[in-house]
Design goal:
By secondary structure, the chain is of the alpha+beta class. The protein is built from 6 helices and 9 strands, in the order H-H-H-H-H-H-E-E-E-E-E-E-E-E-E. The strands form 2 sheets. The chain has a 5-stranded antiparallel beta sheet with strand order 2-9-8-5-6, with no helix packed on it. A 4-stranded antiparallel beta sheet has the order 1-3-4-7, covered by helices on one side.
Length: about 290
């Protein structure tokens, strides 16, 4: 075969190996191959073309640990082929000593470790934060479980004394005996505040009453002439003969009282008193307002 034919055959075989052979070129290749006397065949040129293509590809260096695995696998593969061959020539096996050196770490490897470490630190922080929150929550629950102490209401004496200290328009009057013999020894005083609309009665010597039979009722007169319809100041009972402090429960707004009167009425009191039994009277003197 002439040199031109060899070069043409080589070109066609390369085109076939790279997949760029046309139908016309394929027929030409078949004719040249039939008359050619050369050791080149399609398989050899296909391998050559593949090598050329791979040479044009920019390949990054294989990591050291992966290279060691590949070389180790290749040694085992070729050793097995040599043992199974019947005297046929095989490629010599290259013995490679694998070092124990650890593969070098790239910046991405260290970045991965840094992210993992940061995640661990964040996890520890979250656990610590959650534990503190849990402790606070448990403390709050424990506080909620504690019985709330009931508010302590001031005694009648304390409330009366507070009114005396704070009221700017305090009216005071002293109790005197009424129209019944049993209350001749009654004493004490009544205090009242128009601004606060509240007051207290203090009695000493007011006889205890039987709640099943009778009750004491307070009447507040705003006219010194003792009007026919005074204001109801509340119904109460006395169970002991010592000092008794009773809060005034005025049913209507009361301003500038002139006389306080205690009558004995049926249990529960009345709307209009006949004033048949007056247990005590407390006229307000000008100096007591």
């Amino acid at each position: 075969m002439s040199q031109n034919m060899d070069e043409r055959l080589l070109d066609l075989l390369c085109d076939k190996a790279t997949g760029s052979l046309s139908e016309e070129e394929a027929r030409e290749l078949a004719e040249l191959s039939a008359s050619a006397n050369t050791d080149m065949d399609a398989h050899s040129l296909e391998l050559t073309a593949a090598a050329i293509l791979l040479a044009e590809i920019e390949i990054e260096e294989m990591p050291r640990h992966l290279e060691a695995k590949v070389l180790g696998a290749s040694q085992r593969h070729f050793a097995a082929q040599k043992a199974s061959s019947d005297g046929a020539d095989v490629l010599p096996v290259r013995t490679i000593e694998l070092g124990s050196a650890r593969p070098g770490r790239s910046i991405l490897d260290w970045f991965g470790w840094a992210v993992a470490a940061a995640a661990c630190i964040a996890l520890v922080g979250m656990v610590y934060y959650d534990q503190n929150r849990l402790a606070d929550l448990q403390k709050q629950i424990a506080e909620l479980k504690k019985p709330t102490p009931a508010p302590v209401s001031p005694t009648a004496a304390q409330a009366r004394d507070q009114l005396i200290r704070e009221a700017r328009d305090l009216t005071r009057a002293s109790w005197t005996k009424g129209t019944i013999k049993e209350s001749e020894g009654v004493s004490g005083e009544v205090v009242w505040s128009d601004e606060k609309q509240m007051g207290y009665m203090t009695f000493r010597g007011l006889p205890p009453n039987d709640p099943n039979r009778e009750a004491y009722q307070l009447w507040i007169f705003e006219n010194a002439e003792l009007e026919a319809h005074p204001k109801d100041g509340g119904v109460f009972n006395v169970s002991e003969s010592g000092e008794v402090i009773i809060p005034i429960e005025a049913k209507l707004k009361t301003m500038s009282p002139k006389v306080f009167a205690i009558t004995i009425e049926p249990p529960g009191g009345v709307v209009v008193s006949k004033r048949e039994k007056i247990a005590a009277l407390a006229p307000v003197k000008p100096s007591q307002t």
